[in-house]
Design goal:
Layout (H helix, E strand, L loop, with lengths): L17 E2 L22 E6 L5 E2 L3 E10 L9 E5 L5 E6 L12 E8 L5 E9 L11 E10 L4 E9 L10 E4 L2 E4 L5 E6 L2 E8 L6 E7 L3 E7 L7 H5 L1
Parallel strand pairs: 3-9, 10-16
Antiparallel strand pairs: 1-9, 2-4, 4-7, 5-6, 5-8, 8-9, 10-13, 11-12, 11-14, 14-15
């Protein structure tokens, strides 16, 4: 699934892309009398970034590259630079575009999280891909949220307040952690001890909210009331 917290949102499929590289017209000099062809922009996107990663653990993200002129980006290289500008990894995008696109070539890359908690700004960079100047380079920033090791198991049981039936597919968010309930209306999150604001929301239901400390394994029962629109009679009565 592709979901995420605001800190953890990136470009394209869930992210913020950026364009960069050499300015237009920086390619080779054309023959006399020929018009200079502007290089195509390179779009870089990053998605599937985990909302929270334990200190020092390995995680994966997906990188995508596309040419604004619809040239194939197959085989292009993308570098990942960390908050200090250090290159952490490189990846070569594959031959097949991402499903539903005609030019977004992609690859998955594994990375190691920093050893200290915090929110880090990293960058995926696609250098200018050849000496012809046909494409500029491009980049996209994304965030890596590093957290302490989980110490508590938080279990959420979502029920319809009237029918008492399980609510499947309800979103459970205890920032920056998130998941959804299963067919039994149950969701589990492993989190560090601390203060949390928990939201449970499902289609057609009023969101449930819990504020408090989680210091040990805890179960929270979320009674979800149906979100019934007011009729004209209700509004004017």
């Amino acid at each position: 699934m592709i979901q995420q917290d605001d800190a953890s949102r990136t470009s394209g499929a869930g992210g913020v892309d950026a364009l960069g590289g050499e300015p237009p017209g920086a390619g080779p000099t054309p023959p006399d009398g020929a018009a200079a062809a502007e290089p195509h922009a390179t779009r870089v996107v990053v998605w599937d970034t985990p909302p929270a990663i334990e200190c020092g653990k390995r995680f994966a993200v997906r990188l995508g590259v596309a040419c604004s002129g619809k040239r194939s980006a197959a085989g292009w290289t993308v570098e990942v630079h960390d908050h200090d500008g250090k290159q952490r990894a490189t990846a070569t995008v594959g031959d097949d575009p991402w499903p539903g696109t005609d030019a977004l070539h992609h690859a998955q890359v594994e990375l190691d999280a920093p050893d200290v908690e915090g929110l880090y700004a990293w960058k995926a960079v696609a250098p200018a891909n050849d000496a012809s100047g046909a494409n500029t380079g491009g980049s996209a920033s994304f965030h890596v949220r590093v957290v302490a090791a989980p110490a508590c198991l938080l279990t959420v049981v979502a029920r319809d307040a009237e029918s008492r039936s399980p609510v499947e597919g309800a979103r459970v968010v205890a920032h920056p952690y998130r998941t959804v309930t299963d067919k039994r209306g149950v969701a589990r999150l492993r989190i560090p001890a601390g203060e949390y604001r928990l939201f449970v929301s499902g289609k057609g239901y009023v969101p449930f909210r819990f504020d408090g400390a989680v210091e040990a394994d805890t179960t929270i029962r979320a009674e979800l009331s149906q979100d019934v629109e007011l009729s004209d009679a209700d509004i004017w009565s």
